[in-house]
Write a structure and sequence with these properties.
alpha/beta, six-stranded parallel β-sheet
C-alpha cells in the first residue's frame, strides 16, 4: 500500500517524511524498532509496510487482540497492559473522525486529545525517544472554525503532547496532513467523497 498526501505537510524539526528522526544538530538518527499506534489504520499499515521495507522492526499497538499491545483510546479509563517491548520511536496514527453533534464532539475530544497523557505513558514505558503524530491541517485556528470538533481535538492533542513530552523527556513532532489517500480505497471509510474524486480522476472521469 502507498499513502500519498495531497499537499505539503507541516512538520516539526524532529522528524521528516522519510521516517528519519533528527537530533539537536539536525542530523538523521537511525532507529531499529518502531511502535505504531493505530497500526491497522490506512496510514498506520502503510507506515508499517514502509518500515518493514527499511528493515525496521515494528510493534503493533491498537485495539485488535492480534496487536502486540492492546490499547483502546475510546475507553474513558484503562490500565496500561504489562509488556516488555522496547522501541526507539512511536508513530501515533490512531484518530477519531466523528461528527460535530454532542456525542461526536465528546468522542473526538476523548480519543484524540484526552488520551495524550495515556499515550505518553505508553511511550515512556517503551523507552521511545520521539513521538511522531499524524496531525491535521484542520487544527490551525482558521480551519478549526470551519471543520469543527475534529480539527479542534487534533489541535488540543498537539498541545497536550508537547506538554507531556517535556515531562517524559522525549521529542514530539506532528505532521499536519491536509488530506491523504491510499491505493486500496481505505480512505473511503472516513472520506467517501474524497475517495470518489480520486477514483474518478484516476480513470479520467468527471
Amino acid at each position: 500500500m502507498s499513502i500519498r498526501p495531497t499537499g505539503r505537510a507541516v512538520t516539526s524539526t524532529d522528524c521528516d517524511l522519510g521516517f528519519g528522526v533528527h537530533d539537536e544538530m539536525n542530523k538523521p538518527v537511525q532507529f531499529k524498532t518502531a511502535a505504531i499506534l493505530g497500526v491497522r489504520s490506512m496510514l498506520g499499515s502503510a507506515i508499517a509496510a514502509e518500515l518493514e521495507r527499511k528493515a525496521v522492526s515494528t510493534i503493533a499497538v491498537g485495539r485488535s487482540q492480534k496487536d502486540d499491545i492492546f490499547v483502546d483510546l475510546s475507553l474513558a479509563s484503562q490500565e496500561i497492559p504489562p509488556f516488555k517491548y522496547r522501541a526507539d520511536v512511536l508513530f501515533h496514527c490512531a484518530s477519531s473522525f466523528y461528527g460535530d453533534d454532542d456525542e461526536g464532539e465528546r468522542l473526538n475530544i476523548r480519543i484524540n486529545a484526552e488520551s495524550a497523557e495515556f499515550v505518553c505513558e505508553i511511550a515512556s514505558r517503551l523507552g521511545v525517544k520521539t513521538i511522531i503524530y499524524a496531525g491535521s491541517a484542520f487544527s490551525d485556528k482558521e480551519s478549526q472554525e470551519k471543520y469543527g470538533s475534529y480539527g479542534f481535538s487534533k489541535y488540543l492533542a498537539e498541545e497536550r503532547f508537547s506538554k507531556f513530552s517535556k515531562l517524559h523527556n522525549f521529542s514530539f513532532g506532528s505532521f499536519r496532513f491536509p488530506q491523504i489517500y491510499d491505493t486500496f480505497g481505505k480512505c473511503c471509510v472516513h472520506q467517501p467523497w474524497f475517495g470518489r474524486i480520486i477514483a474518478y480522476a484516476s480513470r479520467g472521469l468527471e
